[in-house]
Amino acid sequence: MHSIRATLPSYLELTKPRITALVVASAAAGFLLGAASFDLALFAQAMAGVALVASGTSALNQVLERDVDALMGRTRARPLPAGRIAAPPAAAFSGVLAAAGIVWLWIAVNPMTAGLALATFISYDFVYTPLKRVHSLSTVVGAVPGALPILGGWTAATGQFGPGGWALFAILFVWQLPHFLALAWLLRDDYEAAGLRMLSVGDFEGRRTRHQALLYALTLIPVSLLPSVLGLTGVAYFAVALGLGGFFLWAAFRFARAATPANARGLFRASILYLPLLMAVLVLDKL
């Protein structure tokens, strides 16, 4: 019993609770924006399933990358490289969580949402994770599973795909690119030491990284206006999205002009501020 209590915090750490909370928040926004009327029971069941799949996905990612995590300063204290948990039970734990979440979504919500959860699990752990070792396109590929939960929230509420759901997916997809490019620039030495082929590795002056971040931040402005164009939201959201987009673009422009740690952190912080504000205004304007 003492051994179980001692390892419980490490198993919880495998699930990356903060990341899981963000995934659930994304799915919740998709549900609220898609729902014609709010069904609390359906909402709770959908969020529970999403949380299980997100937890299992994060846990398996740490199993697959335990050798890489051991080489990076910010990750070597994680449960697997630190030796607090062995790989086989961690893999079993991740598989049970993900499978339980997918089955739960299939039974309690709908097969479409369960299929999106399965696609998220597979694309993140078996496409994006190994691709990081071989090509910098992994950042773009990884943005797909990162954006699927908001679409899953939409399908949980509506039972179908639709232009509104795909617009939300597009916002999350594009937003992730400058967000992670800024982070990758800050962590480029860690990534290089671990042998990961991120865009920032070997980009000594940051030319490719900063210019792509600026391009994606610029692209995000028209993409973020799609909910209003499609009639999902009104003038209030349109105005706020323009303002937030301009703020985000300004941060990206500063990074593009000079790839310094301060400017990269500024862009990263702007991205963290941008998304919850945009999602909150989306939901409030819809309601």
Give structural attributes.
287 residues; mainly alpha; 0% strand; 79% helix
Q: Largest sheet, if any?
A: none
Structural Rg: 19 Å
The averaged pLDDT comes out at 92
**What gross morphology would you assign?**
flat
Number of strands: 0
User: What's the helical proportion of residues?
Assistant: over 70%
Assembly context of the chains: single chain
Contiguous runs where pLDDT drops below 50 for at least 5 residues? none
In N-to-C order, the SSE pattern is: HHHHHHHHHHHHH
- The helix-and-strand class reads mainly alpha
Helix count, DSSP H or I runs of 4 or more residues: 13
Approximately what portion of the residues adopt beta-strand conformation? Answer: under 5%
What distance lies between the first and last C-alpha atoms, to the nearest angstrom?
48 Å
Description of the structure:
With 287 residues, the protein is mainly alpha-helical. The chain contains 13 helices and no strands. The chain has helices spanning 2-14, 17-34, 40-64, 66-69, 87-108, 111-131, 138-158, 163-186, 188-194, 207-224, 226-229, 235-257, 261-286. Helix 5 (87-108) runs antiparallel to helix 6, helix 6 runs antiparallel to helix 7 (138-158) and helix 8 (163-186) runs antiparallel to helix 13. The longest helix is centred in the C-terminal third of the chain and has 26 residues, at 261-286. It is flat and about 50 Å long. The N and C termini lie far apart (48 Å).
